[in-house]
């Protein structure tokens, strides 16, 4: 009985290293902006609560001052997810 020819297997090549996906460090302005947004939001909300009926910092928007303050804080917290 004749023997079958074996298939030629290619030589093993190791997988490529993912240098294209290497994480780059954040720019120098990233951390100060992140912390600044969180502090601005905190000061905004505290100022609104302390002012009571005077409705500082922006009297035109009324209770939306809380939303503005929390928006600043959330922007800062969302930046923490990209911090390296």
Automatic annotation (TrEMBL):
<feature type="region of interest" description="Disordered">
    <location>
        <begin position="1"/>
        <end position="24"/>
    </location>
</feature>
<keyword id="KW-1003">Cell membrane</keyword>
<protein>
    <recommendedName>
        <fullName>Cell division protein CrgA</fullName>
    </recommendedName>
</protein>
<feature type="transmembrane region" description="Helical">
    <location>
        <begin position="62"/>
        <end position="80"/>
    </location>
</feature>
<dbReference type="Pfam" id="PF06781">
    <property type="entry name" value="CrgA"/>
</dbReference>
<keyword id="KW-0132">Cell division</keyword>
<feature type="transmembrane region" description="Helical">
    <location>
        <begin position="29"/>
        <end position="50"/>
    </location>
</feature>
<keyword id="KW-1133">Transmembrane helix</keyword>
<comment type="similarity">
    <text>Belongs to the CrgA family.</text>
</comment>
<dbReference type="InterPro" id="IPR009619">
    <property type="entry name" value="CrgA"/>
</dbReference>
<keyword id="KW-0812">Transmembrane</keyword>
<dbReference type="GO" id="GO:0005886">
    <property type="term" value="C:plasma membrane"/>
</dbReference>
<comment type="function">
    <text>Involved in cell division.</text>
</comment>
<keyword id="KW-0472">Membrane</keyword>
<dbReference type="GO" id="GO:0051301">
    <property type="term" value="P:cell division"/>
</dbReference>
<keyword id="KW-0131">Cell cycle</keyword>
């Amino acid at each position: 009985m004749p023997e079958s020819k074996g298939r030629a297997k290619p030589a093993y090549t190791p997988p490529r290293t993912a240098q294209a996906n290497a994480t780059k460090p954040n720019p120098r302005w990233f951390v100060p902006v992140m912390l600044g947004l969180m502090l601005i939001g905190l000061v905004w909300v505290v100022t609104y609560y302390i002012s009571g009926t005077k409705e500082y910092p922006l009297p035109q928007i009324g209770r939306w001052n809380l939303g503005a303050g929390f928006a600043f804080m959330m922007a800062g917290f969302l930046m923490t997810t990209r911090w390296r």
